[in-house]
Amino acid sequence: MILTDNKLKEIILAAHLLDEKSWNNIVEFAKNSDISLTDALIEKDIVPDETFGALIAKELNLPFVTLSKISIPEDVFPIIPERIARKQKVIAFGKEGNIIKLAMNDPRNQELQQMVAKKTGCQVAVYFASERDIFNTLHIYKKDLQKRFDNLLSDVISKSSVTVSDDAPIAKIVDLLMETAYQEKASDIHIESEEKNSLVRFRIDGILHDVLIFPNNLHERIITRIKILAKLRTDEHLAPQDGKIRMKLDEENIDLRVSIVPIVDGEKVVIRVLASRFRELSLQNLGMSGEDLKKVSEAMNKSYGMILSTGPTGSGKTTSIYAILKILNTRGKNITTIEDPVEYRIKGVNQIQANPKTNLTFANGLRSILRQDPNIIFVGEIRDNETAGIAVNAALTGHLVLSTLHTNDAATTLPRFSDMKVEPFLVASTVNVIVAQRLVRKICEMCKAQVSIRIEELSRHIPIELIRKNFGQDQEIKTFKGSGCKICHFTGYSGRIGVFEVLLVSKEIRKLITEKNDSDVIRDKAVEEGMTTMLDDGLQKTLKGLTTIEEILRVTRIESA
């Protein structure tokens, strides 16, 4: 860290972000979690990364830049080679006349500044940027995976008299796939055998992209290499197999969850990439508004009750729960989880992997957890009546219980418990807050442009009263979209952010639940009491230029009139 811990403490206390006691708690949390004080402050939702960076820049008497919010010219960033950019945490992001602008996380690096000045013959202007921001911007060095793969094969062929199928650099190919997926921030790697070729696809921001085609005669050998790494049977080709790989990269050690299934043309592999470095585990960074954050914080500070996160698969429910667990994680509390699977390790939290083969189900695991003297329990998902009943009883008996459900919005979660044979008065007594969410793709900052949309066109998809509420009375509204560039795979989007609705179970809503009112009545009451719906939250994010109306409509499933 560029500032000493004492100087950091001085800045945080001077900005009235924490008092002395709270600072000591942060220091203890950072030590127990084996993370930096900077990461601890961000993960505890004390201060957003951007605000924190601005405070440090002010202390260093340097201008501050948020790289994620600017477009970096394609002829500027190559001034710093990728290897140096990654190692030194620096990016060239602009040029004005004879001045090169450098975003640095350690502005004390005079040698690097002199190197750039000598290389370009220009003066260097240094800006401070947060380490997270620089790390997340390194994708501008994107290389074509197909070209890298072809070069890897051609290098071997040129040095050998044997054919590709005899001497393919399989280990290097597999490493290349995994490293590239990590750098591209892909959540999954799909390797599929087709009739003539094999196809590799990356899931980036929830969308699959074709990234590589290779000869079918390499497919089986690549699958075998992955099986060896994942400690799976290499002689089994007709049954599904699951395994794990631990891979060491320059930036961090990453975990890869491997699933192999037999298909008509061979075997298909899907690898889930679980990388924790700078993962957005702060509710503010996930996109939760200040008002919603306040409601969740109130529920978190209670010693008992339930906090529920709802939404379809892939909507970021578990990520939100992890963000809450990070905040609650202190040495004075016993936090135990039962998950399927355990995606990310949280130091200081007892995490149990559900295993139906050994009868370690959510329900049985939850029973065992209750005998472990827990303060806080996280149940990965409430799937059945038994788990629901035990979770509600745990919340009634002095435990804070966090869990997820698959429901469309916050209000429909409450009747869902009735379907699971939980009495309404028990639900009303235990549930503190329900967070419903979706993930939307963020507009790519590299190709972001302003666009105009006429109200009559928008009213075909969104009720006019909601349009007026969020966009005012103008006949034309100004929003943004990405025009498409190589950085965003010509999609116009890069990265994701959450849209939320947070239903705080008030006294009036408890009464409605006990009276067995349906979800529409509960939802209307929650809106009357100030709940922001997912659609409203999404439209506000379009106004801020974070995402597009098309994305909001896609995830909130509003049909055309």
UniProtKB/TrEMBL annotation:
Highest taxon above the source species: Bacteria
Cited InterPro entries: P-loop_NTPase, T2SS/T4SS_dom, T2SS_E_N_sf, T2SS_GspE_N
GO molecular function (one): ATP binding
Gene3D superfamilies linked to this entry: 3.30.450.90, P-loop containing nucleotide triphosphate hydrolases, Type II secretion system, protein E, N-terminal domain
Residues annotated as domain Type II secretion system protein GspE N-terminal: 60-139
Swiss-Prot/TrEMBL keywords: ATP-binding, Nucleotide-binding
Pfam hit, one: MshEN
Any single Gene Ontology cellular-component annotation: plasma membrane
SUPFAM superfamilies to which the protein is assigned, alphabetical: EspE N-terminal domain-like, P-loop containing nucleoside triphosphate hydrolases
Keyword Nucleotide-binding: yes
Family statement: Belongs to the GSP E family.
Protein name: AAA+ ATPase domain-containing protein
